[in-house]
From TrEMBL, chain A:
One of its GO terms (molecular function) is ABC-type transporter activity. This is ABC transporter permease. It comes from Planobispora longispora. Residues 1-21 are annotated as: Disordered. The keyword Transmembrane helix applies. Residues 1-14 have a biased composition (Low complexity). Keywords: Membrane, Transmembrane, Transmembrane helix.
UniProtKB/TrEMBL annotation, chain B:
Residues 222-261, 382-407, 441-467 are annotated as: Disordered. This is ABC transporter ATP-binding protein. One of its GO terms (molecular function) is ATP hydrolysis activity. Residues 224-239 have a biased composition (Gly residues). It comes from Planobispora longispora. Residues 683-911 form the ABC transporter domain. It holds the Pfam family ABC_tran. Keywords: ATP-binding, Hydrolase, Nucleotide-binding, Transport. Residues 384-403 have a biased composition (Low complexity). Belongs to the ABC transporter superfamily. It comes from the Bacteria. InterPro entries: AAA+_ATPase, AB_hydrolase_fold, ABC_transporter-like_ATP-bd, ABC_transporter-like_CS, Galactose-bd-like_sf, P-loop_NTPase, Xaa-Pro-like_dom, Xaa-Pro_dipept_C.
Length: 310, 924
């Protein structure tokens, strides 16, 4: 019936459609006209659905504002307390130039702020739908569960990546405006590397920061499909990072610690050394990918058979 | 199902734990190694007439059978206990290991002869005899066991000395040991030999005191690396060792402590000749020819050309007692015979450092594995090519392939920080050629600086500090800690320009210095001068000037210059009367990287804490004879890129594989289960059953059918299972049994037929931050269906929200949300509309309107299912009714029929409410 007189038909057009109620039978698997599982929940729709949320805005606002806050902090406190110790710390060099500043901004935010951002985008995505009860209507639309999860994951990872990328880029901009476009001074030895040589490495750093957050993303996502509480999913993922960081401090674990998800999180610092050493980053990528693949697989498997009762 | 699933998970977790713990318990641990205490009687002495009993421990090889043997010697001041850990480790690797306390140490009797060929060497040769009689030891020939010797410091020297005197030894791996003991105690960086050397007073004192009456604990530094791997356990073991009481021979029971005799206090357990020699040279600060002769008899320098077996020399970079030059000299001496030699400069030594215990063990093990375990029987390893003694051989050692993992020349470097732990790591740079101390290439670094006066303080105090002998452990924690202090006015320094490229110096730099004497003494006589000392020469004629040359790494700025490894090169330069003395100074051998922007600074100081310096005051003028430093570099030294660990590839691959299996294994192909005969039936439920988690049935064997055009009321009190049934209709929850068919298609999660179903179940579900309109629009877009099919306007008309439609949903009242949700359910005008309590929260006019909407909707051949407990509503709206109670179907049929069947009984007109109460009351 909705094919024949769909646009004209309305609740008032009674009587005319009585015989056409069965017209849909020849469609694929009995679907309504125009329905195809492959077209459900387009990415653009999910992006819009997530983008206008307050927490998305706040998080991006925070990430974009942080470099400026740091710039102000360095300007206000400029010149004080550069210790005469043997080795230069990354914070001692932050005001040396845009690239140094961006590296500093990344180093101070990677361990927690970016973790929270990634956990938020990936942990909130399904759990909040469950929280709002909109999940069941999406599933009854019907959006196949695997597809719903896939689309949501793609968008969540996209937002996470945007968050991880926008911070160092904004820091680069802010640092360059505030401190100039200078060559990079390396922490520790204070050696100088030409800025243009470092730019590709900086790309590697950002890429690694992205990959190393995969574990957080996957954990948050798995929790997101397992719970109806967005806070629980986000907090759980952050909690995992905290526990892992604590375990990392237990020397007795020896080389077992190399397999902790957070163990290699600072390995990107090696890319900014005079001689970049990628071995730590390779290990970090291996561990991150290994955990993430398993966790994502569990998320899909779990969601597939889950009873949606929220 | 849910319950059993959960239980299964727990069972799986417990099973994994149990298996893990069991595996951990029964996992084959290293075979236990039990040492057998032995007392071995030997005869030694120049005339072979001195009987000594050596306290030894024999560790049979862990694997059983006949195995190569390793003699493991301890460091000075230690005992066989010092190397126990290393011995156990080697025994576990399948070696028969014999440790012993050298004569004069531990519970062994006899006196210390400083690895003399007449004493200690003879002892060890008899230990080899003893090994040859053991059934556990593999023999090359009768009386000739397959045996290697390892040990550090004093123990390293006995390895070298025994190798020279006993050709049954097949391979040695000495650590941090000496080549020329005379040069150790009287170094002279001008190369003029120990007779004119500067007395290394503090180390010498510590060295000899360790052989003297022993105090418990104390300075363990001398034996710091007494054996491979024995480092850490040692100090404690020494301290608590009952034999470490004065006069160890009879100190077996701590209770029988007696005051030491005069001789014991004077000489400890030293052989009197050695003791006298030391007392003489220590008093004068000058080496006598006899002392040099005695010391050299105990040194590999006296057996050049006699060590013709594979030799692995492990020397510490932080070692002001036996600097790297000694390993270099040993390496050249052994290499000259054609025997394979490998040299490693590791991060350790008598002044501390990391120690690299495990790495040293691995190197030693590889060495012995190759030359003891793998070498064919009869082939006494290193002697494979018949060697003409003294035949010129490249200093690089044998070109033949050596053991795996042991390079010709290895230098431990700072590998930065571990990317994970952020702790310092050691990097092992290797090269296939041993370059010696002068490097493979010399770089000339210009130095500048005027002639500078330096003062020798009277009495040699205060003294500059480079390293503090015996306190190496203090700086173990941080390798960069520099204790060096140059006293003001005592130092002349010459600097290079800031480096434009990093400079890695590997070996001994040289610099030419010129010294003039500006003023001497407080008076001509300098009355209290020591006999024969340099002060005696101040009166006229040539004068000896003692200086300490250091190569600093000056970073500039506020950073203090770093003295690599705390090493200095003492020089004694003879300055002719009124003239200038010149000398080429060989600076300490180091492996150090000077970073860009740093300067090289060569400093000459007049004093050093560790050395004997002239007591009489003097002022010298120091300048450079040639304004450059010749710096050795070894560019071929590179750390092999080890490549990523195997798990770097295996782990993610395995995990992706597992993940794929996880995702695919549980996947049910969305197979449309279609019964064509039911195409016209909007809903058929058969045998539907669903249990709560606690096992109670929410829906129990429910069956009913809905025909097109019906408005079906699903009636039941709270908990009847209405909502659960509706959820199953939407594929949100999985039925335990039974099935639901919509237009003939079985409902599974995401079944395409659900696109013909509009639903409102248990409240609205909207994105609160979006407006009502945006919510509906996005919802429709999410279904992926054409926008034209949405009939959005009609749906919005039903919602009747007016201007509120543009507000965010979070501002809506419950009724507004309810209407918006019903509008959403009607989007696309679905063939089957399922509404759960649609009139909840609506006011009476809205309820009436909703009733009309539903009736109109069904009138067009569509089907509406409404659940409610407002019976009046159902009565007015629905054509048919299904009554549920406690999950079971109570009755089903047209409303009118239901009413009729009830009225016939008692003749009274009955409302549905009465019927309903009647029905559930009956079932209750």
């Amino acid at each position: 019936m909705n094919d024949a007189n769909g646009a004209a038909a309305g609740p008032d057009a009674s009587g005319t459609g009585g015989g056409t109620a069965l017209a849909a039978r020849d469609r694929e698997h009995g679907a309504a006209r125009g329905y195809s599982p492959r077209h459900t929940l387009p990415l653009s729709v999910e992006i819009v659905r997530q983008f206008r949320r307050r927490r998305t805005m706040v998080m991006f606002g925070l990430l974009l504002a942080l470099p400026w806050v740091l710039v102000i902090a360095f300007k206000v406190g400029g010149g004080w307390g550069r210790p005469g110790g043997n080795s230069l710390r990354i914070s001692d060099l932050a005001a040396d130039g845009g690239l140094n500043f961006a590296a500093f901004a990344l180093s101070v935010s990677a361990s927690f702020l970016l973790v929270v951002a990634v956990a938020l985008f990936c942990g909130d995505t399904v759990a909040s739908e469950a929280d709002w009860s909109s999940l069941r209507y999406l599933l009854a639309a019907p959006i196949p569960r695997d597809r719903l999860l896939r689309q949501k994951l793609v968008v969540a990872l996209g937002y996470s990546a945007a968050a991880v990328i926008c911070l160092p880029l904004m820091a680069l901009l802010a640092g360059t405006l505030a401190f100039g476009w200078n060559d990079v001074r390396v922490p520790g030895t204070g050696e100088v590397i030409p800025a243009l040589d470092v730019l590709p490495r900086f790309g590697v750093v950002i890429g690694y920061a992205l990959v190393s957050q995969l574990v957080v993303a996957a954990t948050a996502f798995l929790l997101s499909v397992s719970t109806d509480s967005p806070l629980g999913a986000v907090g759980g993922a952050v909690g995992l990072v905290i526990v892992s960081t604590i375990l990392q401090a237990v020397e007795a674990l020896g080389s077992l610690r190399e397999f902790l998800p957070t163990f290699w999180n600072t390995a990107w610092l090696d890319a900014l050394a005079p001689q970049p050493d990628f071995s730590g980053m390779i290990k970090g990528v291996a561990v991150a990918v290994a955990y993430a693949a398993i966790l994502f697989a569990f998320a899909f498997r779990r969601f597939r058979t889950k009873d949606v009762v929220s | 199902m849910r319950l059993s699933g959960r239980r299964a998970v727990w069972v799986a977790v417990v099973a994994v734990l149990v298996v893990g713990v069991a595996a951990w318990l029964v996992w084959p641990s290293d075979p236990p190694v039990r040492g057998q205490e032995q007392t071995i009687a030997v005869v030694d002495g120049p005339a072979d007439d001195q009987r000594v009993t050596l306290d030894a421990t024999f560790f049979p090889p862990a694997g059983g059978g006949k195995a190569p043997a390793v003699l493991l010697a301890h460091g000075f001041g230690g005992s066989k206990q010092s190397v126990r850990d290393s011995a156990v480790r080697l025994a576990q690797e399948g070696y028969a290991v014999l440790t012993w306390s050298a004569r004069g140490f531990g519970r062994s009797s006899g006196q210390i002869a400083l690895n003399s060929p007449d004493y200690e060497v003879k002892d060890v040769r008899q230990l080899v005899d003893w090994l040859a009689r053991r059934p556990e030891v593999r023999l090359d020939a009768s009386g000739d066991p397959r045996v290697g010797i390892a040990g550090g410091s004093y123990g390293g020297a006995i390895a070298l000395m025994t190798a020279a005197y006993d050709d049954r030894i097949d391979a040695i791996a000495p650590q941090i040991t000496w080549y020329d003991l005379a040069d150790v105690l009287f170094p002279n960086a001008t190369g003029q030999g120990p007779e004119s050397g500067v007395f290394k007073r503090m180390w010498a004192g510590l060295f000899f005191s360790r052989g003297g009456p022993q105090a418990a604990g104390g300075l363990a530094a001398l034996t710091g690396q007494g054996g491979i791997g024995g480092q850490d356990g040692q100090a404690g073991q020494d301290g608590g060792d009952p034999q470490a009481v004065p006069g160890g021979q009879d100190g077996r029971s701590p209770g029988t402590v007696r005051p030491p005799t005069v001789e014991e206090v004077r000489c400890g357990r030293f052989l009197p000749e050695i003791c006298d020699m030391y007392q003489q040279v220590a008093e004068t600060g000058r080496a006598t020819a006899a002392a040099v002769e005695t010391l050299r008899r105990s040194s590999p320098v006296s057996v050049q050309g006699k060590i013709r077996i594979p030799t692995l020399l492990l020397q510490g970079q932080r070692d002001s007692l036996f600097p790297l030059g000694h390993a270099d000299a040993n390496a050249r001496a052994v290499a000259a015979t054609g025997a394979p030699v490998r040299v490693a400069w590791f991060d350790g030594g008598h002044d501390g450092g990391n120690g690299e215990v495990d790495w040293l063990h691995e190197q030693t093990l590889s060495w012995f594995d190759h030359y003891l375990k793998k070498a064919p029987v009869g082939d006494t390893t290193g002697n494979a090519p018949p060697v003409v003694a003294g035949a010129p051989q490249p200093a690089s050692g044998s070109p033949a392939e050596g053991p795996e993992g042991v390079s010709v020349f290895t230098v431990t470097r700072d590998g930065g920080r571990d990317p994970g732990t952020r702790r310092p790591v050691q990097l092992h740079a290797v090269t296939g050629v041993y370059p010696g101390l002068s490097g493979s290439r010399q770089v000339s670094v210009p130095l500048s600086g005027p002639e500078q006066p330096v003062a020798n303080p009277p009495g040699g105090s205060p003294a500059s500090i480079s390293a503090i002998p015996g306190f190496g452990g203090l700086s173990t924690g941080s390798a960069n800690l520099s204790l060096s202090v140059d006293m003001a006015g005592q130092s002349a320094s010459f600097e290079s320009a800031p480096l434009s490229a990093p400079l890695q110096i590997t070996g001994s730099s040289t610099v030419k210095v010129r010294v003039r004497v500006a003023s001497t003494g407080t008076g001509a006589g300098a009355g209290e001068e020591k006999a024969g000392g340099e002060a005696g020469e101040t009166a006229g004629g040539p004068q000896d000037v003692t200086l300490f040359a250091k190569l600093y790494d000056a970073a500039g700025g506020t950073q203090a210059p770093v003295l690599p490894e705390g090493l200095v090169a003492p020089v004694r330069i003879t300055v002719p009367e009124g003239g200038a003395g010149e000398a080429t100074v060989t600076l300490p051998a180091v492996d150090h990287r000077f970073e860009v922007g740093h300067r090289l600074r060569v400093a000459f100081t007049t004093t050093d804490l560790g050395y004997d310096t002239p007591a009489s005051p003097a002022v010298y003028q120091v300048s450079l004879a040639s304004p450059a430093l010749a710096a050795p570099t070894v560019t071929s030294l590179t750390a092999p890129s080890t490549g990523p660990a195997w798990w770097t590839w295996a782990l993610p691959l395995a995990s992706v594989l597992v993940a794929t299996v996880l995702v695919l294994a549980g996947r049910r192909k969305l197979r449309d289960d279609h019964t064509p005969g039911l195409d016209a039936v909007p809903l058929r439920i058969e045998g539907l059953t669903k249990a709560y988690r606690n096992g109670e049935l929410a829906v129990d064997d429910l069956s009913f059918t809905v025909e097109p055009g019906q408005v079906l009321g699903l009636l039941g009190p709270n908990g009847a299972g209405k909502t659960t049934t509706m959820r199953m209709m939407l594929g949100l929850i999985h039925p335990d049994r039974g099935e639901i068919r919509i237009f003939g298609h079985r409902v599974v999660p995401g079944a395409p037929v659900l696109s013909r179903l509009g639903s409102f179940v248990e409240g609205a579900g909207f994105l609160p931050h979006l407006s009502g309109r945006a919510n509906l629009e996005l919802y429709w877009k999410a279904t992926g269906r054409p926008a034209g099919d949405a009939h959005l306007d009609e749906a919005l008309e039903i919602a009747g929200l007016g201007a509120a439609l543009e507000r965010a949903v979070r501002t809506y009242s419950q009724g507004m949300r309810q209407r918006l949700a019903i509008a959403q359910a009607m989007l696309g005008l679905p063939d089957l509309l399922v509404l759960d309590e649609p009139t909840n929260g609506l006011d009476p006019p809205q309820i009436r309107e909703m009733r009309e909407v539903l009736i109109r909707y069904a009138a067009r051949g569509r089907t509406v299912i409404v659940s409610s407990h407002l019976l009046a509503e159902v009565e007015q709206t629905c054509s048919h009714v299904v009554v549920m109670h406690r999950g079971r179907l109570v009755t089903a049929g047209p409303v009118g029929e239901l009413l009729r069947s009830r009225t016939t009984g008692n003749g009274m007109s009955t409302r549905l409410e009465d019927v309903f109460l009647d029905l559930i009351g009956e079932k209750a």
